[in-house]
């Protein structure tokens, strides 16, 4: 694609008009624009196009043909010579001859390929060890699109090896991700805690009312997020995902660290001492043992 594009830009389109016995040189501005895209500045593009038309010219002739200022024409030609797009013919005066457009294309193509190969090699050789992330640092991922949020939820459940706790104050969130939760239920077990069970009667998943001993902890979490609505998903694998609607779009915050593991275990322990919460038989073995006893 790149090679074909370069070939298209060297289609020289020029027009000659006779005005008061002077030859006025006009180049299609599309040609100039395309030459600029592959590295030429405007005067270089005009000069190269003019030389391709004339095949050979002095600086003065090129100045008169292209209207490039006399004070700049030599500098422009020097740059083209330096780039090897133009050759110098010694004489009095000095004349300039362009290389063939096909050759110019080949040079640009080769330079482009060498540059991209060098870039790829440089990236491959980057020493990431010098920029190791501090394991004690806590990174927060902000998820700003429905697609990103849904994929992060799926990823969270895929990485979860045992169970998850979902604490939700916004019914719409659970209904919107119901398909993901149903699919995840085939792999792991989870508890869903809500404020009012009646709001979730049409949900095809079992929900439980948030126990009183969880309310204070949950309220603190909601206060820290500075919102009264939202949904927390805690994973047994140190992951937490907070979901909320912002301007009718589902957003999220994701973390993965040891603090989440502590919160998850705290919630699990508190839930294990309640008879009001229906804990699935295949839920986290530690919680099941605490709640049901070793013989059940």
Automatic annotation (TrEMBL):
It holds the Pfam family TrmB. Residues 35-101 form the Transcription regulator TrmB N-terminal domain. Gene3D superfamilies: Winged helix-like DNA-binding domain superfamily/Winged helix DNA-binding domain. InterPro entries: TrmB-like, Tscrpt_reg_TrmB_N, WH-like_DNA-bd_sf, WH_DNA-bd_sf. This is Transcription regulator TrmB N-terminal domain-containing protein. It comes from Methanolapillus millepedarum.
């Amino acid at each position: 694609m790149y090679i074909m594009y370069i070939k298209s830009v060297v289609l020289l389109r020029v027009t000659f008009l006779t005005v008061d016995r002077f030859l006025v040189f006009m180049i299609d501005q599309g040609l100039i624009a395309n030459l600029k895209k592959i590295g030429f500045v405007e005067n270089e593009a005009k000069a190269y196009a003019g030389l391709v038309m004339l095949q050979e010219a002095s600086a003065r002739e090129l100045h008169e043909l292209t209207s490039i200022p006399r004070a700049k024409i030599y500098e422009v030609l020097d740059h083209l010579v330096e780039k090897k797009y133009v050759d110098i013919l010694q004489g009095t005066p000095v004349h300039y001859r362009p290389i063939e457009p096909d050759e110019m294309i080949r040079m640009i193509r080769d330079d482009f390929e060498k540059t991209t190969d060098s870039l790829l090699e440089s990236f491959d050789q980057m020493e990431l060890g010098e920029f190791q992330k501090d394991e004690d640092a806590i990174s927060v991922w902000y998820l700003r699109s429905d697609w990103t949020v849904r994929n992060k939820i799926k990823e969270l459940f895929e990485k979860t090896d045992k169970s998850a706790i979902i604490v939700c104050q916004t019914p719409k969130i659970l209904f919107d991700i119901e398909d993901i939760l149903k699919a995840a239920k085939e792999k792991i077990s989870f508890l869903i805690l809500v404020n009012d069970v009646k709001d979730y009667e049409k949900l095809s998943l079992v929900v439980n009312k948030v126990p009183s001993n969880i309310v204070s902890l949950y309220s603190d979490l909601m206060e820290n997020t500075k919102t009264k609505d939202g949904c927390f998903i805690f994973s047994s694998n140190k992951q937490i995902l907070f979901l909320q609607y912002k301007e009718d779009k589902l957003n999220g915050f994701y973390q993965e660290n040891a603090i989440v593991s502590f919160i998850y275990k705290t919630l699990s322990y508190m839930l294990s001492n309640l008879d009001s919460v229906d804990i699935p038989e295949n839920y986290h073995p530690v919680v099941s043992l605490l709640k049901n006893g070793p013989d059940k």
